Structure formats: C-alpha cells, structure tokens
Amino acid sequence: MSSTTSTDTDRQAGSEATAREIIQQPDVWREAADLVEAQRESIDSFLAPLLNRPDLRIILTGAGTSAFAGNVAAPSLAHQLHRRVDAVATTDIVSNPYECFAEDVPTLLVSFARSGNSPESTAATKLADEVLTDVHHLILTCDKKGDLFRDHQGRDNSLVLLMPERANDQGFAMTSSFTSMLLSCLLIFGGPNNEAINALAAAVARLLAQREPLEKLALNGYDRVVYLGSGPLAGLAQECALKLLELTAGKVVAYHDSSLGFRHGPKAVLTDKTLIIVLVSSDPYTRRYDLDILHELHAGIAADNTVAVSTVPLSGAGHLWLLPELAGLDDAFLAPAYVVTAQLLALSASLQLGLTPDNPFPSGDVNRVVQGVQIHPLEPAPAH
Fold first, then answer.
1. Cα 140 to the chain's mean position, in Å?
2. Residue 305 CB partners (closer than 8 Å, separation 6+)
3. Which of the 8 DSSP states describes residue 308?
4. Is 70 exceeded by the pLDDT of residue 103?
5. Stated pTM of the model
6. I need a surface site. Which of 88, 126, 181, 371 has the fewest CB within 10 A?
C-alpha cells in the first residue's frame, strides 16, 4: 500500500458512495430489523410448515459476497435449528446442478442477491425448480426492479423480502447490502433480537468515530493481507479478503483461511510485508484455536503485522481492535460489525493507492453486476 497523504475518506472524490454506505450501516440494520418484524406473520406462515418437516434441507445461496453471507449464516443456523443447513454458491449450482441437488428432498433455497440481476441468481432458482420435486424459495434482495424480485414476487412457493432502500449499494463493493441481508436472515430464522441490533449499532458507531488506527494501517506498506477466522467467521474472512481485493483493484493481494487450516500449507504466503488479521470467536472453546494461531504468528513475525478483532481483551497477540459491546453474541451476529473493520481498511487502502473506491475498475474489466455469463440449457441427468 502506498504512503501517499490521506485526507478525510468520507469526502475524497470517487469514494462518496462507498463511504456513505459503510457509515450508514447501523441505521440500515435497525430499518432492516423493523422490516423483518413488519412481515413476521407472513414469514412464520411461510416457514412453519417447512420447518416442521424433519427431512427439509435448507440451502443458502448467492454469488461472491452474497455467497459469503450464506457461509457466515449456515453454521449458526444449523446449530440453532438442529437441522441440515448448507451454503452452496449459485455459481456452483449453475455449473453443477445435479451434484448440488443430488438428493431430491424437500428443499428451502434461500437466495441472497444485491441486485438480483446476476445471471446465476435467477438461473439457480430455475434449476432448483427443474431438478427438485419439492422446493420453496426465500429471496433476500435489495432491488425491487431486479430480475430475482420480479421472478418470485407473488409465487405460491416463494417469499420475497426486500431490504431497506439504502441497502441497495450504489458503490462497486457490497457493504450495506451484505450486512443487511445477513442480519435479516438471522432474524428471520431466529426471531427478534433487539439486544443484538443495539449492541452492533453501538459497537460500529464507536468504531467509526475512532477509525484512525484502521486508516493509518493502510499506510504501512503491506502488499498482502490475510484474514483468518473459525466457523461463521471463516466465512466472514472470505468477505473481508474480497473487499480488499475489490477496492484495491487487486493491487493488494488478499487471502483467507480458517484459523486451524492456515498452518496446512497456506502459511507459506507470509512475508515481512504481510498483514494478518484474525477474527476472534466469541465462543470460549473455538476462541482457543484463534488464540493459538495468533500467538504463533505474533511470535514468528513482527508484532506490528498481527491484528486481532475481538469482543474480549487479549494479551500477547499483537494489535487488538476490541469490540466489548458484542461480548457473548453468536459469531454470526458478530460478522456485521467485524466486517466494518475490513470495509474501512479496504476503503483507506484504495484511496492510498490513488484509486476510486466507488469504481476501482474504470476500464470495465470487472463490473458491479457480473457480465459475460452465458447460461446453458440443462441437459438430462447422466445415467449411473
């Protein structure tokens, strides 16, 4: 990352939408929670008959950041609902539908989509309808003009929940849309949780007011950043890495892994210009493994290269970004606040590199809504 001078990131040209959409998240979360509760009767009448079926398979799907929302939510929902919950990207469903839907069991396909205009978004739901005998759709999207919203609005086997209007990010990278859809999913299946929403809002408001250390970190010359986490936070590490890769147009290489998995080869990525950020679990047992890798990294490289994001105080683990307001929350609920640290770091790094975060790819090589995807007709399932 370059060491050019920094000004107020909220006002730099080309960053207005991204900065606004990061900062507005606490307010948007409250609005999203209100929207879920306003539709609670419809949600419960749709879900109750499905959740009463012991053989129901729940699949959380999306592409890119939307897929990572499923990766964060799936472990938590499986534990909470005591049933099978799988996270399967639309990109896998579209390319391998018979493998992804190998079991023809009653299925609830939960689709996350900012715009709903990515070709895979609508194709995945159509393939589910074609391959599976009994499938229902829960659609979480931010754009009422999107193809996914239009395709499923009013269908008997579908329930569509539209996020707050401000969650339909206009910047290149998904920020408000990701956290709003993730939180809405957790609230849909888990019920109201005002305590968690208020804690998240308070933690992020304080983080935003005290974000100078995050912005300064972008000045330190790192050319690689690694995000690590466990369980739901391993899924979040994917999103954190992608934000940095997107907003720096690939000029800073970002990698992700689980806290335990990192030792099994990927640790080779480390150099003296690598920043490692560990997303520490709120679960005391899981946290032990996060702390083990933190202490190992802190002992093996300069302390300045290791950062922990945690809800509880830590010692001997490098720099600490502490969010005590979130102590005791489930890891999936930590994710919306934890990811704000990654969003801010990515925004600052992008600006330090002289890029425009609202559109880091002015050449059009990478697009806000994916282009160039051809959906091929489904062929009959191969005989076995």
1. 14
2. 222, 272, 274, 275, 276, 297, 318
3. E
4. yes
5. 0.93
6. 371
Q: What is the 3-state secondary structure (H, E, C) of 23-63?
A: HCHHHHHHHHHHHHHHCHHHHHHHHHHHHCCCCCEEEEECC
CB atoms near residue 376 (< 10 Å)? 8
Of 15-19, 83-87, 219-223, 347-351, minimum mean pLDDT range: 219-223
* Dist CA 118 CA 133 (whole Å): 25
CB 21 within 8 A of CB 169: yes
Q: What is the pLDDT at residue 2? A: 41
Q: Characterize the bridge pairing of strands 158-162 and 224-229.
A: unpaired
Using only C-alpha atoms, the chain has a radius of gyration, in whole angstroms, of: 20
- What's the pLDDT score for residue 303? 65
Place of tokens 């998995």: 261
Do the beta carbons of residue 77 and residue 189 sit within 8 Å? yes
How would residue 15 be classed by pLDDT, with cut points 50, 70 and 90?
A: confident
Question: Which structural domains are found in the chain, ordered by start?
Answer: 17-193 (3.40.50.10490), 197-352 (3.40.50.10490)
Cβ(182)–Cβ(140) below 8 Å: no
Mean pLDDT across the stretch 32-57? 97
| Element of type H or E holding 147 | helix 147-152
Burial of 111-143, coded b for 16+ CB within 10 Å and e otherwise, reads: bbbbbbbbbbbbbbbebbeebbeebbbbbbbbb
Strands (E), the chain: 57-61, 85-87, 107-113, 135-141, 158-162, 224-229, 253-258, 274-279, 306-310, 319-322
Residue 93: exposure state from Cβ atoms within 10 A (0-12, 13-18, ≥19): buried
Rounded to whole angstroms, what are the CA distances from 357 to 20, 36, 352?
A: 12, 31, 11
